[in-house]
Amino acid sequence: METITVENPTLYDKAVEDASKKYKVVFVLITGEVDKATGESWCPSCRVAAPILKKLLPTVPDSVLLYCPVVKSEYRGNPSYPYRKKPGVDGGVPTLHWINAPSPMPPLGQCAQEDYVAMWLEMVKEQL
């Protein structure tokens, strides 16, 4: 599964547009940025979710992950943060979205719980 990092929210729309042309399933993960010095996210739930998502997301055929890290100082407590205002990707971190679903699909906010991720991905596969 390809992962495309969207370094800045201003690049999000173009990344979704490009990915939607190549892949049937475009996942968007809004997650806490990884500190380059420690190799870990500032978000505890994001640290737990990362290996779960790495294991389970590749089970969905013809899919891509748009990885959208958020900087703690810009995101935390800021209701005007761009991803919080973007239709279809609002929510906390980590949150996984199927951005080009054929029918409305609720985002997955329980990314740190493997059974929830597996169940959510099964619902995705049923729509393919």
TrEMBL record:
Span of domain Thioredoxin: 12-119
Top-rank lineage group of the source organism: Eukaryota
Pfam families in alphabetical order: TXD17-like_Trx
Protein family according to the UniProt entry: Belongs to the thioredoxin family.
Name of this chain's protein: Thioredoxin domain-containing protein
Species lineage: Eukaryota, Metamonada, Carpediemonas-like organisms, Aduncisulcus
